[in-house]
Amino acid sequence: MATKNLSEYDINSIPSAEKMKFGVVVAEWNYEVTGALAQGAVDTLKKHGTKDENISIKHVPGTFELPLGGQFFAEYTDVDAVILLGCVIQGETRHFDFICQGVTQGTTQLNTNYNLPFIFGVLTTDNQQQALDRAGGKLGNKGDEAALTAIKMVQLHRDMEVDG
Ligand code: DLZ
Questions:
Q1: Model pLDDT for residues 53-99, shown as the tens digit of each residue
Q2: How many domains does the chain have?
């Protein structure tokens, strides 16, 4: 089965993000990849109407720290959703597994503890090339996908607040 291109979507299925505010947390580890994810996410938010001043970007040392960075946004800002961007590349030790487990569980907890979407924009790959392929390379950009998911979840939140 062919791998999905992360940047392909039906533009008509995306609501306007003109009145939405987003926090973006970017891990510094593998920055060649995560910087490209952040660029993709910001470009996609803006393409759908989000204003520059309504996108706040913060950096954390590694993917393991993404959930706490996300929690800071929830506690100290009025964003409508938080996009978490990281890249964990398999190495020789089990560190990969612990980081992946930590960020997955941490993000899940945030989603259930706060009434706010936290979007999981984390690449977990065997090598750098697989990551680059998904960070603006031949398989699109996971940052684009994360931004679109954030917009959709904010809209769902707003719709349900009004209509139940
Ligand atoms: C330590 C570590 C390692 C080995 N690999 C990665 C990685 O591939 N991607 C990533 O984002 N972070 C990595 N880190 C750093 C951890 O995420 C974390 O910053 C440290 O363990 C300190 O808590």
A1: 999 999 999 999 999 999 999 999 999 999 999 999 998 788 999 99
A2: 1
Evaluate whether residue 11 is within a structural domain: no
Question: Distance, CA 28 to ligand 1 centroid (Å)?
Answer: 9
Pairing mode, strands 55-60 and 22-27: parallel
E strand or H helix at 144, and its extent?
helix 142-163
Give the pocket of ligand 1 (CB within 6 Å).
27, 29-30, 61-65, 86-89, 91, 95, 99
Residue count (the chain): 164
Rounded CA gap, 164 and 145, in Å?
26
Domain that holds residue 57: 20-163
Tens of pLDDT, residues 100-126 = 999 999 999 999 999 999 999 999 999
